[in-house]
Amino acid sequence: MKITIITATYNSETTIIDTLKSINNQTYRDIEHIIVDGASTDNTLALIKQYGQRVSQVISEKDKGTYDALNKGISLATGDIIGLLHADDCFAYDKALADIAHTFKTHAPDAIYGDLAYIPRFGKRRLVRTWLSGEHTDKKFYQGWMPPHPTFYMKRSCYKSLGGYDISLKIAADYDAMVRYMLIKKIKVVYIPKILVYMKMGGISTRLSDKYASFKEEMIVIQRYQLGGFITFIKKKLYKLPQFF
């Protein structure tokens, strides 16, 4: 079972090394790693060449944002399973992909997801917040829930039939996709109760400067799928409070 990992990069020289090393260290061997770079002007491509021992393909060209880059990667993927590892994320442990593959082989789901922890962007690695997903139910989506997108792995055949990311959404296309795949299309999903991925603070979804844009886009998704209006947005934020304790 081949797992394709897609990484979108743009001027990611400060974080990409940790991402690449975490893939290099994975014990699972049947990996395809596709990097879609948005025409970086810093040292990103040189670092990929130096540290990307398991990189299968690199594309570097201007794109329309992160989700456009991810869609390109999905279209190029040849693996049975597709997952995403952003340029400021890394696997939490060396057997993460092995656990993901084992879950697909033993439970035969359409997709899996797990838990995620936030760590400082620089300096000593420590857990700042922990996102414990829990088992999903349809009801949870109406209460603002979604799984951590970087822990989500889905069959390539599902991407082909269900489509990729809505690139009109610059921040919340992952939210849109999770609702569409899991709630609307009812794919079979299995939860792995482990921290699979570390996300570094300061990315597009964690910067305060993007909170208003995030609000507008999340409301678009909530209204698009009739998830309950503004109260669902509030519940979505309240769901995150336990991450700090």
Task: Describe the protein.
With 245 residues, the chain is α/β, with parallel strands linked by helices. The protein has a single domain (3-244), classed as Spore Coat Polysaccharide Biosynthesis Protein SpsA, Chain A (Alpha-Beta Complex). 35% of the residues lie in helices and 22% in strands. Strands 1, 2, 3, 4, 5, 6, 7, 8 and 9 form a 9-stranded mixed beta sheet that branches. The mean pLDDT is 91.
List the helices and strands and how they pair.
Elements: E1 3-9, H1 16-24, E2 31-37, H2 44-51, E3 55-60, H3 66-76, E4 81-84, E5 89-91, H4 96-107, E6 111-119, E7 129-131, H5 138-141, E8 153-155, H6 156-162, H7 173-184, E9 189-200, H8 211-224, H9 230-238
Parallel strand pairs: 1-2, 1-4, 2-3, 6-9
Antiparallel strand pairs: 4-8, 5-9, 6-7, 6-8
Keywords: Glycosyltransferase, Transferase
InterPro entries: Glyco_trans_2-like (IPR001173), Glycosyltransf_2 (IPR050834), Nucleotide-diphossugar_trans (IPR029044)
Family: Belongs to the glycosyltransferase 2 family.
